[in-house]
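Tutorial, part two.
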Amino acid sequence: MIRIADLRYRALAIDSLTFGPGITSVIGPNGSGKTSLLKLCTGIVLPEAGSILIDGTLPRQNTVEWVSEFPDRNFLFTTVSDEVASALRFRNLPPGEIDRCSAELLGQFWLAQAAHRQVGELSGGEKVLVALAAALAAAPRALHLDECDSHLDARSAARIEEVVRKSSVPYIIRSTQDMEAAAGSDQVVFLEKGKIRSSGMPGTVFSGLEGTPFYPMTWRCRS
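Running the prediction step on this input gives:
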């Protein structure tokens, strides 16, 4: 479990919150604290007060991967193959295993034909796929996605969703503006002005958001 207690960071104030295994979608208005929450859970920033524990240990003591809205800003290497292989190299795996695992990841992420391309030449969707492949190569305990599904066409967004759902990472927390994707999550957290307004299963959270921009369109049609 990921447990948050008495958390304070800038405008973010969360007394108690628990993320269970699976996919959690964090939703809410712009400026509500979604990115700050994910950064805290990743260990990119530290809380001013309170605690965040992933299975009883601090985020910085775990393998936690982060993919942002603009993942190419964090790329370390110039080619797709080198970027995907980077986490495998950092794990000090044998060269043969690095090559094998890299090839498997490139194939799974529809990137085999792009292996030798420059990352700067890729489309937005391809850049997110490269970042996800590199993140999953690290075999993380938790994966945090900060609106990485923004600015994508429908095909790219569908591929990202497929990758996320097939992942074996124990904990995936993502902030998103896609309410259809959020509706398919295991847990939804609704943030507003730095506070938790609602948290629980999608049906529970969205039942209190009917009539707002955060209610899934497919649910409106169903109603």
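Residues 63-140 form one domain. In part three we will examine how such features are distributed along the chain.
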